[in-house]
Amino acid sequence: MAISRWPVCRGVESIYRDFAYIYDKLMYDVDYKEWADYIEKIFEINGLKPSLIADLGCGTGNFCIEMDKKGYEMIGIDSSPDMLDCAKKKSYGRDILFLNQDMANFELYGTVDAIVCLMDSINYLTYIKDVKKLMKLVKNYLNPGGLFIFDINSPYKFKKILKDNVFYDISDEITYVWQNHFDSKRKICEFDITFFVKEGQHYNKYDEVHYERCYEVDELKKIITWSGLTLVSVYDSMTFNRPLPKSERIFCLQERGIEYVLF
């Protein structure tokens, strides 16, 4: 079993109670502005000028805030009330709509120009039926010609980096030990995470267990086609290059085609 230092897990769709309020401290090394710039570039090269964007699994709202700064109208959706409480406090004074919904069962008031689901939130859907439900909802709420962008932890990352390894990070405010187990038959990775968080003169201990499912791109492509969307591009992380055998994060770009009605 290897022991390494590794940034805390990304894309946590559901974080529980008090843990939501330390989430941003654990995500200190994520450049949300860079993510926003990258997504905006995807819009540009695909000729899309979205006005209204939905962010599935928005967490504490950092991406929504960065996109709001750029002038986009944002809807943030997350299943954790505490994450959304943090998001609302941070975005006070900004016109961002936050909805407390499961992203596999979300409901909007109308259609949107683009939908994103970032930081491996798709991997947190451990049942294929939930991914199918999400894709169908995306198809339903996405305007014709609109884009759906999501990223996944790659199979390589699950099999070669996360599998049965222990990672840690030590700082004065927060220390964590993160132990993984990857079941290759079930394609499920279990993250057992213990946090020690400084609060006043003492440290409080938090224990978390999270699960992610490993998805192959071809497997997702079948679901995307089944849902009525079209897979437009697959990119290596934060680039516009094709994924490599050792790519750790893969971005998928889908389009809802324009449907013509003949009279």
UniProtKB/TrEMBL annotation:
A Pfam short name:
Methyltransf_25
Which SUPFAM superfamilies is this protein grouped with?
Answer: S-adenosyl-L-methionine-dependent methyltransferases
According to the entry, every stretch annotated as the Methyltransferase domain falls at 53-146
Gene Ontology biological process terms from the UniProt entry? methylation
Tell me yes or no: is Nucleus among this UniProt entry's keywords. Answer: no
Write out the GO MF terms: methyltransferase activity
User: What keywords sit in the KW lines?
Assistant: Methyltransferase, Transferase
Q: Which InterPro entries match?
A: Methyltransf_25, SAM-dependent_MTases_sf
Protein name, per record: Methyltransferase type 11
Name the source organism.
Answer: Acetivibrio straminisolvens JCM 21531
